[in-house]
Amino acid sequence: MVKISDERLDEFIELSTEKNIEYKDRQEAYEAANNLVGFFELLHKIDHQEQMRKRRLENEPNGFPIEGSGRNCRLCRQSVQEDMWYDKYGMKCLDCQKAVDEGDVPVEIFDDEDSYITSDELSCKHGIRHQTIKKHIHTGELLPSYIRGNRKLTILIRKENPNLDQILSLK
């Protein structure tokens, strides 16, 4: 942890005041400044790790395993406790990596996070029951991609499901 000098604390308080942020006393301002410094130290550490992974990709262009404990998969967006795979598309759980390797999921979806939605997101964010999603798949209204593994996950690629927004509005 970095010690914040009185001079830097005065600058922080002045900048905060310009942004209409007031602190009850210097101690509260010091804690806020200290939290901000800690946040930027964390961001720097994360960026450093990411740069190291990108450099490693130069020698291992097909990717490599990394510890996944507590991280989220870029594709299924689930929290992962076991190992993950890192490649030019980012961090993925091993089930999602297998789906990408086998062509079950097109890699183009990594260009735009909004190009697909998972069945879990449809359920949680949009209030659509899983049974309703399955019904739309069964009737052919939705074309799913599956990620098989510990649990089967359904991904709906927007380009392949042009009527998805219409189904969302019916809920």
Account of the protein in words:
The protein has six helices and eight strands, in the order H-H-E-E-E-E-E-H-E-H-H-E-E-H. The protein is of the alpha+beta class and 171 residues long. The chain has two domains: 6-59; 64-170, no CATH class. The strands form three sheets. It has a three-stranded antiparallel beta sheet. It has a three-stranded antiparallel beta sheet with strand order 6-8-7. The protein starts with 5 loop residues before the first helix and ends with a helix.
Distance between the termini: 50 Å
Cross-sheet strand order for the largest sheet: 1-4-5
Mean pLDDT: 91
Strand content: 15-25%
Number of domains: 2
Q: Could you give the count of β-strands?
A: 8
Looking at the chains present, what oligomeric state does this protein adopt? single chain
What summary fits the major beta sheet?
3 strands, antiparallel
| Anisotropy-based shape | extended
Write a compact overview of the structure shown.
This protein has 171 residues and is an alpha+beta fold. The chain is 46% helix and 16% strand. Strands 1-4-5 form a three-stranded antiparallel beta sheet.
